[in-house]
Structures are given as C-alpha cells and as structure tokens.
Amino acid sequence: GDILAGKDRAQVCTACHGQKGISSQPIFPNLAGQKAAYLKKQLTAYKNGKRVDPIMQPIVTSLTEIDIDNIAAYYESLIDNPIFTALLGQK
Amino acid sequence: GDILAGKDRAQVCTACHGQKGISSQPIFPNLAGQKAAYLKKQLTAYKNGKRVDPIMQPIVTSLTEIDIDNIAAYYESLIDNPIFTALLGQK
Fold first, then answer.
1. What angle (nearest 5°) sits at the alpha carbon of residue A58, between those of residues A55 and A62?
2. Which residues in chain A have their CB less than 8 angstroms from residue B84's CB?
3. Domain of A59: which CATH number?
4. What pLDDT, on a 0 to 100 scale, did the predictor assign at position A90?
C-alpha cells in the first residue's frame, strides 16, 4: 500500500484512533504498528458485514480496496520507526 | 486486572501473538500496548459468538472473566514502559 496516500485517507480515523494511531478512548483500539494484513482483513470484514460495528460500518462503506490497502500500510508503518523496533527488540 | 496473573494466563496467546505481544504472523494482530477495554470487549465477543474466529473461539472458551481481565491488563501494560510512552509522545 501507499503509506502517504494512506496517511491522507486515514484522516477519517484519527478522531477515534488518535493522530499517531494511539486511540483517544480505551474502547477504541490503538492502530500504531498494527499488522497491515490484519487491518485489511478487519476493514474488509466491516465492509462486507462479517464483522459488525455501528461506528465502523458507515465509515468503511466509502473506502475502496486501494484505500484499505493504503490505510493498512500507513498504520503498520508506524512501527517501522528504528527506535520503536529497537525498543521491542524484535520486528 | 492483575498483570502478573495475566502474563501467566497469556502463555496460550504467545504462539500467535508473540512473546512480547508482537505477533509472529502478519494476519495475527499485535497486542503489545493495546487498550485493555478493547481487548476485553473482543475476547468476550469471541466467547459469546458476537465475533467469530475459528482459531480464537476454542481458546477463549477456557478463559474466565477474571482471566480475560488479567490478560487484557497484561497486554495494555506492555505500553506502560516509559521509553515506549516517551517515544510516542503521548499516552
């Protein structure tokens, strides 16, 4: 996915998931550094109804497959920060 | 939740979610530093069938509510590392 395009498209996510992917509310998940493949699977599941959430559902309807790829790549990229990787001692 | 008890009980999670909550496979989510309330909601949803996953379902059946509280607290605690918090510049 295209990380920069993903960052733009992810503006709609920041209200709940935070500017840097650390969410503002304990009930909303952090997305910073999350696995892109996992995020893609979940966004797609919200879109096709396999996973149900009243907040996510209307938001994902407007996302194209490419948007989903880019957003997922963007959030995963928030782990590719050398300090972060060094801190966790593993990728 | 009790973080140490959670760490013990979370041994069953490490196979897929990694020793430090950074998962071994791109399709499995990282759990390190994830919000406890979110994790509790998802583990409970797997347990009552609101969320469906063939891998998670058999694992959560053996978890009590206290186990779920402790495991959630344990994974969230993996963010409470001062360097990690300082790195992200926000909690």
1. 135
2. 84, 87
3. 1.10.760.10
4. 46
